Amino acid sequence: MTQQILERANGHEQRFNTLFEAYFDTVGAGLDAPSFSQFAPECLGLLRELSLRGGKRMRVVVLHEAARLVTDDPVEGLDAAALSIELLQTHGLVHDDLIDDSPTRRGGPSTYYAYRERFPGRPQTALGLTVLAGDLALALSLQVLLEAKVPAEVRQAMVEVQTRAAADTFVGQIIDMERDFAAAPDEEVLHCVTDYKSARYSILAPMQLGLLAAGEQPARMEKKLREYARLVGIGGQMRDDYLDLFGDAAVMGKPCGTDLRDGKHSYTVRALLAVVDDRERRIVQAALGDPSCTPQTIAAVREIGERRGVPRIMQADMRRSARQASEMAAGWRTQWREEAVTFFEQLPLWSVERAM
């Protein structure tokens, strides 16, 4: 991205982080829970800690840049929409870490493991409170929109967008788990999982919310916005899957091969199985779903992939998706403001190139 866009994105991120902290101060002070309860404020505290612990806030940036497609003037309702987006993200992180049995998130303990430490002899209590913590984040993400200071019809439309995004994400989680029961899901299945699980709430919903807040009707561009979000999501998910095996563990801050050990039929696994011989296939399949898989085995799978040209194949695929999305955004210049269109042109290319 250009330096100007990066500076603008950084400004959105910094301003939102201040807003998010103030939001949790307000919610914490006014939490409607019985005075005797310790669990309720502890739950909110864990949500606060996870929410404020990090993240690039790219969904917030997409939201603000979507509003800039229409106007450069201040837009009422963007703060509420940004809070809603990131609270829904917090909900997703809490439940993802429970589903994946992940001990850490953003450099700290996951909510699930924080509860496991809090209740070492009560596993069902830890499990139940984790589910409820995620549910609370989801409820807060909708409540903040219902209280947004925007016209009633805009508020209703924004709630509908976010509710639909949440439902799509839940379906995405379900089919993501279902995908890993298939012997070899085809590419369209992987694209569909990515669309439901991440593209719709990470790209499409923030764009729709930003346009609605700025007075635009995103329904008139529904098909194009959905396809753009899908392509950006596919490129980004390919990049994440690629980095899981071929990335630099020191840069990522986590070991390589997590998807293999977890048995995930990722884009990388599909690309590997499409080019290996029978002996190599046995090595890959033995590693797939083996939680005790050693770093040496992961390195062997990586070496097979590199020898077979998988990194080059995946890079070409993700760049193709990014170019298609960028070309689609370029066509918006006849309807929307130039500088914001440029952001959406550059976003997919930046998303796949960073850290690759």
TrEMBL record:
Q: Which domain of life is it from?
A: Bacteria
Q: Which GO terms describe its molecular function?
A: metal ion binding; prenyltransferase activity
Which Pfam families does the protein's record reference?
polyprenyl_synt
Arranged from A to Z, the UniProt key words for this protein are:
Isoprene biosynthesis, Magnesium, Metal-binding, Transferase
What residue ranges are annotated as transmembrane? Answer: none
Give cofactor(s), names only. Answer: Mg(2+)
Q: Which GO terms describe its biological process?
A: isoprenoid biosynthetic process
Identification of the protein by name: Polyprenyl synthetase
Specify the species: Streptomyces griseoruber
Q: What does the record give as the organism's lineage?
A: Bacteria, Bacillati, Actinomycetota, Actinomycetes, Kitasatosporales
